Amino acid sequence: MTIIVDAQDISKVYGEVTAVDTVSLSVKEGALFGLLGPNGSGKTTMIKMLTGQTRPTGGSATVLGLNVEKNPVAVRDRVGIIPEQETPPSFLTAMEYLAFVGAVRKIPDLETKADYWFDLLEFRDKKNVLCKDLSRGTRQKLMFAQAFIHEPALALIDEPLINFDPIMQDLVKDYLAAYAKKGKTIFISTHILEVAEEICSEFAILHKGRLLHTGPVADLTAGGGHLPQFFLSLVRKDRHV
Amino acid sequence: MFELFVAMVREEWRMHSTMFGSLSFAMFPVMIFGIAFMGAFLLPLVRSTLPAGNLALIVHANFLLLGFMVGAFGLLGNEVMNRRLGQASLLAYSARSLPLSEVHIFFTFVVKDVVYYFFLWVFPFGLGYILASPFIGVPLSAALLLLLTLTLAFLYGLCIVFFLSALYARSRPLLGAVVLMLGAAWGSFVAVTGMNPALFFPPLLLYAAFSSMNLILSLIVLSVLFALAVVLFSPEGTGTTREHRDAFAPLARRFTFLPDPPLAAKDLIDLYRSGSAVGQILFSFLIPLAVIWFFLSLLGPYLPPHGLLLMFAIITGVIASTMYTWVTMFDTFGPYACLPVSVSRLISGKLVTFSLLQVVPVLFIAAVALVSGESANLVPAVVLCLAVSYYAVSIMVFLTGLSPNVLVYDVRVMAVYLLLLGVVLTLFSALAFAEPLYALGSVVLFLPAWFFVQKGRARWDAVDPSGF
Lengths: 241, 468
Known about the structure:
The structure holds two protein chains of two kinds.
Chain A: E1 3-14, E2 17-28, E3 32-36, H1 43-50, E4 58-63, E5 66-67, H2 72-78, E6 79-82, H3 94-105, H4 110-120, H5 136-148, E7 154-158, H6 166-181, E8 185-190, H7 193-199, E9 202-207, E10 210-216, H8 217-222, H9 227-239
Parallel strand pairs in A: 3-8, 3-9, 6-7, 7-8
Antiparallel strand pairs in A: 1-2, 1-4, 4-5, 9-10
Helix pairs in contact in A: 3-5
Chain B: H1 2-20, H2 22-40, H3 43-47, H4 52-85, H5 91-94, H6 102-136, H7 140-170, H8 172-193, H9 202-208, H10 212-232, H11 248-254, H12 261-273, H13 276-297, H14 307-321, H15 323-329, H16 343-357, H17 359-371, H18 378-400, H19 411-434, H20 446-461
Helix pairs in contact in B: 1-2, 1-6, 2-6, 4-7, 4-9, 4-13, 6-7, 7-8, 7-9, 7-10, 9-10, 11-12, 12-16, 13-14, 14-17, 14-18, 14-19, 15-16, 16-20, 17-18, 18-19, 18-20
């Protein structure tokens, strides 16, 4: 099976802080991959490096066969990204923002596709409201729509369920699972372990920027294990190292 | 009250030191002090060509403008910081959750601005001059008086902007009517007396002839402006979710002749809907330039016949270059980081929008040339203005990328900017004063401008973009 994300000894150092420390991991096509870790473990930095938003200070990574350091714009052209903080431009309406994304990405038949997302995520009534006036939940819906509107081969999502109500969380989980079943790849970072266990096919655990574990979720659950307990014991043990 | 004031001062300091680094920012008042101290030693030279009164006038006009700029930025601060620093929220806005009235918060905010920027800008300048005064034969009392009157000039600028923007927030027609009335009164005064009303600027009167009465008069006018601003202050509405019809698609279609229609359309919508299009043109362009014109016109006797217009074209060009800050003000790279857009493409997009806005200085200079009876020099003035504007903006792009606002107070960046700009301004001022047609030679500035933009695009593509 094709490797979609391939990171080799990738690192990111900010001054004296090592955010990501020589991490190697790979994600196969069609996987729903969960990057887990406590706050400050390097998850967001990892996603930023894989999407060419920040340059690694060591190692290398390819996404969809493209070197992220050499081709950051080409990588972002082919993937969908939802950053940690939802930041649609303040003075565009929701519809205008999707039209803007469509124009930059050169997406045909944008209006029909935008309508699909307004209906799916149930925010059609907000399509003409300025982004600055949208609630956090609605902004997150908008960011979700912009990330998937061009049906990317890979979507990288930092905390996919943040700001969503339980009904919307359920809907989004179903959407992600169905998207991966279509052969597309999803890479999420989260610290909601129950969600990761429920929807992810593979996972990796980061702590203090280092990779503690990576493997299929099924291997863990087949033996009667649960991701939350496994995660907690691994991270607690590492804290004492 | 005092706790909020202290917290606001602390917040302002942290905001600046976070953006520029504590050392770089702390050096800023030191740089102002150094400029004033060393500049004071040039006074005997300058006085041989320019009377002391006119020099005082220019310095007071600068501090009046400083007040304008600080006031305008303060009012836009929250939105700007939100875009620059992500989910930033300033105390002036978040204090609404406290049991304090809006007027009380606004009052504290204004007092904070006065105190903070006094110590950042005004005091270091005054101190530099005071410490240099014994060496250049200026009595200490005159140096202290300058500090007082510069402080007042700064406060006038601040209060005028707060007053006009309070009117603007209440009613745009009311603001228009007040500006028209003031303009008419100004024009009538000039027509009847043949004198320039700028001479009656209270801090200047006080500097020319200090007396308790003049001081009281200055303070009364200032207090009235300040009281009116606070009383008229109307907090912006929150929680409104007005619907807007789609402006993006039609605008992007109209801009198909531009290199990057979606970016230009988005920028213009940002400017229009944020209120910056009108607000910035009024408070950051027209009012400062109107003030400069009246102050500069007092220098008429010391300049060649065409010198005033061409000098004004150069100043308009420098101020027009700051339109780049208008189009970058509400944006970080954040929203674009999800998209296949590089920093260099975004810089180019901003420069295209900047170019669209250059129609404003062109029309302005053309109007000034016609009104002042200098239509023969209209073309050299427009060329000079645009060349200076593009040259200045290219330095800004090279030095600051997409963050011209946040780097204003970085001493190193500011010093390089002033050096690169100062050399060119001096050269072209001299050429234009010698012969108006020489101003046309300023087109050569487009070459270094192009060079700086290309270097800037490569430079900022090579570093991690900030703002996400």
